[in-house]
Amino acid sequence: MTGSTRAIAVVGAGPRGVGLLERIAANVPELYDGRLVVHLVDPFPPGPGRVWRFAQSPLLRMNSMPEDVTMFTDDTVRCAGPIRPGPTLAEWVAAVREGELAAEVDPALLDELRSMTATTFPTRRLHSAYLDWFFTRVLDTLSDGVEVRVHAAAAVDITGPEDGPQSVWLSGRAEPVLADVVVLTVGHLGAGPTPEEAGLGEHAAAHGLRYLPPAYTADLDLSALAPAEPVLLRGFGLAFVDLAVLLTEGRGGRFTAGPDGALTYHPSGAEPVLHVGSRRGVPYHAKPAYPLQGDPVPLPRFFGPPEVSALLARPGRLDLRADVWPLMAKEIGWGYYHELFTAHPHRTRMGLTEFAERYAGLDWGVDELASLVERAVPATEDRLDLSALDRPLRGLRFTDRAALTTHVCRYVEADLARRENPAFSADLGAFLTLLSVFGQLAQLVGAGKLTPQSQVDDVDGWWFGFFSFYASGPPGHRLRELLALVRAGVVRPVGPDMWVRAEHGRFTAGSPSVPGVVEATTLVEARLPTPSVRRSTDPLVRVLHERGELLEEVLRDRDGTGERTTGRITTTAAGGLVDASGRAHPRRFALGPHTSSRSPGAFTRPRTNAVGFRQNDAVARDILALLGAAVEAHSTL
Fold it and tell me: What are the boundaries of the region Disordered (predicted)?
């Protein structure tokens, strides 16, 4: 060991930040022979961070099963650093329960710990305990000479030259944290209002109404929403689910199950009336409650490295819908039909080998492919229709709101029937293939191969929305609760393509698919804010942007036209933080879903060669190589 000491500051100590810490610790023995201090800067506990902190409602749950969540690399992860395997959330729960792992678990979690299985959906507080244990595990495995210091404060500024130490200034502290390298792992950024949102807020202030802009649900103060008050919720995804939980069961209501398993909601009387709508007009699909029933699908097949390389080699930029989606859709179809043919061959009229050979030779969307599917798959309900899945209420008109409500309830019941019945495991085949497609698409995005319009509207807009709608929905029991809330009159659907207006001293909403309007005294945006560096509420991001040391990502066509902003923090492919001049700061990095690297914000599924693990490992190795070179240069002076 050289005796020199270098320091890294990681701003943001949630799962991404401590995941990076684990990769730094794993790579130190190979790449760095000196003393190292890693500063973790976050006002929230290291490991869980803000989103997964223990201090939130015990009613809020994850939308992933424990067997599908891990913080550890495995042998599928293609990275240069060492693989250090560890338990998934499910394995951790079992090991702690059996006394095989020592972990401090709050007494309030013991009943859940005892009853949890690999396929039930845990509370966020139980997951918080897993993340806390993971952080402790990383600390216990640090090499000699590596020290971690936790700073329970918010970073408000970073100063320092490109060729020298960086000063990370903290709220309420007179002295900065000094580091040779700084990494921002800030997760989802809060954002100030858009012009539309600002107008809605002004209308609310002028007329004694309430407007809650996009935000993380657990951070919202919902106490002002009065019993029986009409409330508009714009958004039918996971944020809506959380809001519904907090405003019903969280206010003393309860569910009971009948002999047939159907739930009945018993109001406490403290609930507002929730009118909910969205572009699709229906909630996200329930998470599948079964494993694959057939043979594992070999992926990638039609949208893998050869196809991505061919797309990258094309001259000019690509349009997602025209150039890439046909390959993506064909891959998703392959995952779906492979599971159908191997798990449920009695529902097909053709062997898999023959079907696969014919399927391989046809382009997605052509009539010949549709004819092949009709011949091979006799039941309409067994055929994959991605367009109908994307917009299930498209073209429908309802005579009144009661007819709409009946239709939405039947839609949800049908979705639950599929997602809880392994006879429809082909849906899971498509679900898992979506994950593979997501990873392949990331290479085209990272290379800047798509047109600005297609990147913003098709990828960041439509594709991410469809992915979340189909693959990132709530556990099935939340949709059964939703049905009970609708039957109780507490939740009332507004319809697809929901519009909202501020007029006549009220908020009004409606849908082109159903006559009439809904009036309300409160409007809640049931979603997270879209990325926006310019409107960021994070003081660190804001001050760096104001000085030109952090840049909002702007995409331009190669001829200088077609400019679009994504709102994300601009980084290089290697995670380097780019300034307003277009240069990457050699000592500042950024990782996370709101950077231009677009890493997934969701948790990592085991054995998927996860993008987040690969990014963390690559950045950790780059930083350690940089520090090692600096130590060597210093020692030769």
Answer: 575-609
Q: What is the pLDDT of residues 439-485, one digit of tens each?
A: 899 889 988 899 999 999 999 999 999 999 999 999 999 999 999 99
Residues 438 and 577 in one domain: no
Element holding 626 (H helix, E strand): helix 611-635
203 and 90 fall within a common domain: no
The answer on 241 and 161 residing in a single domain is no
Of the candidates 505, 533, 523, 568, the one whose C-alpha atom is nearest the C-alpha of residue 197 is 523
For residue 486, is it within any domain?
A: no
Give the structural domain span for 267: 195-284+491-525
CATH of the domain at 146: 3.50.50.60
Is 499 found in the same domain as 462? no
pLDDT digits (tens, 9 = 90+) for 513-528: 999 999 999 999 999 9
Q: Is residue 294 part of a domain?
A: no
User: d(Cα 103, Cα 123) in Å, to the nearest integer?
Assistant: 17
Q: How high is the pLDDT of residue 1?
A: 37
* Residue 332 CA from chain centroid, whole number: 20
pLDDT in tens, 306-365: 999 999 999 999 999 999 999 999 999 999 999 999 999 999 999 999 999 999 999 999
298 falls within a domain: no
DSSP string over 173-189: -SSPEEESEEEE---SP
User: What letter represents residue 152's amino acid?
Assistant: A
What global pTM score does this model have? 0.94
Q: Kindly state whether residues 571 and 602 are assigned to the same domain.
A: yes
Number of domains the chain is built from: 3
In angstroms, the CA 102 to CA 112 distance is 17
Sign of the dihedral through C-alpha 50, 54, 59, 63: positive
Is 332 within the bounds of a domain?
yes
- Is the domain of 57 the same as that of 165? yes
Q: What are phi and psi of 250, to 5 degrees?
A: -65, -15
Alpha helices in 248-399 (DSSP H): 305-313, 325-343, 352-360, 367-376, 386-390
Closest CA to 153 of 2, 27, 322, 39: 39
